[in-house]
Amino acid sequence: MLTKPFGWTGVPVSVIGQGTWMIEGNREAERRAVEALRLGLDLGMTHIDTAEMYGNGRAEELVGEAIAGRRHEVFLVSKVLPSNASYQGTLRACERSLRRLRTDYLDLYLLHWRGSHPLEETMSAMEALVAAGKIRYLGVSNFDVEDLKAAERCLTTQRLAANQVLYHLKDRGIERRLIPYCAERGIAVVGYSPFAHSDFPRPGSREEKLLSEIGARIGRTPRQVILNFLTRQPNVFTIPKASRLDHVRENSGGTGWEFTPEELAKLEQAFPAPARDMPLGML
Ligand SMILES: NC(=O)c1ccc[n+]([C@@H]2O[C@H](COP(=O)([O-])OP(=O)(O)OC[C@H]3O[C@@H](n4cnc5c(N)ncnc54)[C@H](OP(=O)(O)O)[C@@H]3O)[C@@H](O)[C@H]2O)c1
Predict the structure, then answer these.
(1) Is 59 within the bounds of a domain?
(2) Is the CB of 242 under 6 A from ligand 1?
(3) Is 215 contained in some domain?
(4) Which of 21, 75, 140, 238 to mutate to test ligand 1, by most ligand atoms within 8 A of the CB atom?
């Protein structure tokens, strides 16, 4: 699996990581989800994304199980819920996440989306967490350019390392202003829901056929084409979620080659970026 520098931090992070939203379930489903995460690590997808929100903490517990004994391999990311993101609330939420994840530090801690607690409080709590060695880097999620600027103004000792946002072939709005702004500031962009959360591309659809034709030249599948396209820019990463082992294997092959100009033109035509600025999409 390819890695690239995670924005200004320079830390090499796997271009394709692993999401964990909705990995919780019955015992068998959870056993499979843990096995899938471990296989993903074996295949180099060492960027693991979770959040206190996912399964009310259950996803973090399962990640803790999956990375037990392998913490050093992982770039571990979690998120604080906006409703917990007061100064003290952020410190407490981080402690709870660390306990569930069975680790003593996070590589990256994000505000899940902007809520009603003042950003100053959340950002300064995150700076205190960096100073205490509980998190290495801080960031945000679902922030558009103006929100990013507001967060940057609140920081005094640290810089934003990342912004995690919705990004898939049918929602390319972030390419207009957000990706260029983040590139200029050295903020890594982590695109979530690369398969539009579930059913894209639909089996047998025209879209799937086109992606399949494009992948055929070098023996790649439609979903591998999607992942490679979404991570073609230097500061953009993606975090598909997969609980099936065959899906994990497939996703791990979704990077590492260049599209021809003709292939790019076909993708542009079938999945155009919007022609004007759009509000940030969110799941
Ligand atoms: N910051 C935020 O607000 C936010 C919001 C949404 C998501 N996220 C993060 O981004 C991650 C990914 O987004 P997502 O979970 O919404 O959806 P996604 O990754 O776009 O899609 C997940 C779905 O695609 C299936 N899938 C994965 N790989 C596949 C493959 N190779 N072939 C066929 N199907 C495949 C999965 O099936 P199986 O599970 O059965 O393998 C699952 O049903 C989340 O898990 C979460 O960590 C963050």
Answers:
(1) yes
(2) yes
(3) no
(4) 21
On whether the pTM is more than 0.85, the answer is yes
Range of the domain at 89: 3-201+229-259
Question: For the chain, percent helix, then strand, then coil, each to nearest 5?
Answer: 45, 15, 40
Helical residues (DSSP H) of the chain, grouped into ranges = 27-42, 58-67, 87-101, 119-131, 145-154, 178-185, 206-216, 222-230, 245-252, 261-270
Separation of CA 239 and ligand 1 centre (Å): 7
Q: Edge to edge, what strands does the sheet with 47-49 contain?
A: 47-49, 75-80, 106-111, 135-141, 160-166, 188-192, 236-238
* Peptide bond between residue 194 and the one before it cis (omega within 30 degrees of 0): no
- In-domain check, residue 251: yes
Catalytic-residue membership of 54: yes
Protein residue whose Cα sits closest to atom 10 of ligand 1: 192
Asked if the structure places residue 214 within a domain, the reply is no
Q: What is the pLDDT of residues 127-139, one digit of tens each?
A: 999 999 999 999 9
At 204-253, the pLDDT tens digits run: 999 999 999 999 999 999 999 999 999 999 999 999 999 999 999 999 99
pLDDT at position 278 is 87
Tell me the CATH number at 243. Answer: 3.20.20.100
Residue 246 in contact with ligand 1 by CB distance below 6 A: no
φ, ψ of residue 35 to 5 degrees: the values are: -60, -40
What is the Å distance from ligand 1's center to 110 Cα? 18
240 Cα–ligand 1 center, Å:
5
Give me the number of domains the chain comprises: 1
